[in-house]
Amino acid sequence: EVQLLESGGGLVQPGGSLRLSCAASGFTFNNYAMNWVRQAPGKGLEWVSVIYSGGSSAYYADSVRGRFTISRDNSKNTLYLQMNSLRAEDTAIYYCAKDVRGGYTSMIFDYWGQGTLVTVSS
Amino acid sequence: DIQMTQSPSSLSASVGDRVTITCRASQSISRYLSWYQQRPGRAPNLLIYAASSLQEGVPSRFSGSGSGTDFTLTITSLQPEDVATYYCQQTFSTPGSTFGQGTKLEIK
């Protein structure tokens, strides 16, 4: 059974940093691209970032480029999101999501974690 | 950026009704369109990809159609467990993606 378990969320002040983790199990992690998708309270879904299976290529939404860094450790089956220079508008539930296809990304997400809440407030 | 617009933003229907949700892209996206269901308090769940392909395990009352800029998600016989918000997503501009604003479906 595929499982994705996010952690690392919490309350942080504007300008602060936070590192999210997503522990994966139940599939061959190093075969699939992985993504972060966020959802502000009461709002819709926003794609944040993707990293390809080998970790050599990563892409970001304009809203986070230059502030967030996605990475993965295939030996630990874990995905990360380093978030710096956080703003109030980054407040959201952050989901990790597995791509449905191996290798590069199709941007189709067949499994999602339960999410971790990040609150940016003074 | 490709914008995705869903209509209606919310709707209420009775159990057994046929329900249709539409999604329009700001430019042609061929058939690079997915649909997700998000039940209250839960993570999204993939229903349809490539405009009309049913994800494994999804009930056959869900179907998708369309190409280019106009797409439709149809539920042929609404069930109580279908109460959720539904999102379309374009996957044409890979890497990168945008979602519609969502359609909240309730039972009358």
Summarize the structure.
Chain A is 0% helix and 54% strand. Chain A is an all-beta fold and 122 residues long. The model of chain A has no long low-confidence stretch (mean pLDDT 96).
Task: Describe the fold and architecture.
The complex is a heterodimer of chains A (122) and B (108). In chain A, 0% of the residues lie in helices and 54% in strands. In chain A, the strands form 2 sheets. In chain A, strands 2, 4, 5, 6, 9, 10 and 11 form a 7-stranded mixed sheet that branches. Chain A has no helices and 11 strands. The relative contact order of chain A is 0.31. Chain B is mostly beta strands and 108 residues long. In chain B, strands 2, 4, 5, 6, 9, 10 and 11 form a 7-stranded mixed sheet that branches. In chain B, a hairpin with a 7-residue loop joins β9 and β10. Chain B has no helices and 11 strands. Chain B has strands at 4-7, 10-13, 19-25, 33-38, 45-49, 53-54, 62-67, 70-75, 84-90, 98-99, 103-107. At the A-B interface, β5 and β10 of A face β4, β5 and β10 of B.
For the CA atoms, what is the radius of gyration of chain B?
13 Å
Global outline of chain B: globular
Derived from helix and strand composition plus strand pairing, the structural class of chain B reads mainly beta
This entry's quaternary arrangement is heterodimer
N-to-C span of chain B: 37 Å
Low-confidence stretches of chain A: none
Strand content of chain B: over 45%
Summarize the amount of helix of chain B as a percent range.
under 10%
Number of helical segments with 4 or more residues of chain B: 0
Top keywords for this entry?
heterodimer; A: 122 residues; mainly beta; seven-stranded mixed sheet; four-stranded antiparallel sheet; 11 strands; globular; B: 108 residues
Annotate the secondary structure layout:
The complex is a heterodimer of chains A (122) and B (108).
Chain A: E1 3-7, E2 10-12, E3 18-25, E4 32-39, E5 45-51, E6 58-60, E7 68-73, E8 78-83, E9 92-102, E10 109-112, E11 116-120
Parallel strand pairs in A: 2-11
Antiparallel strand pairs in A: 1-3, 3-8, 4-5, 4-9, 5-6, 7-8, 9-10, 9-11
Chain B: E1 4-7, E2 10-13, E3 19-25, E4 33-38, E5 45-49, E6 53-54, E7 62-67, E8 70-75, E9 84-90, E10 98-99, E11 103-107
Parallel strand pairs in B: 2-11
Antiparallel strand pairs in B: 1-3, 3-8, 4-5, 4-9, 5-6, 7-8, 9-10, 9-11
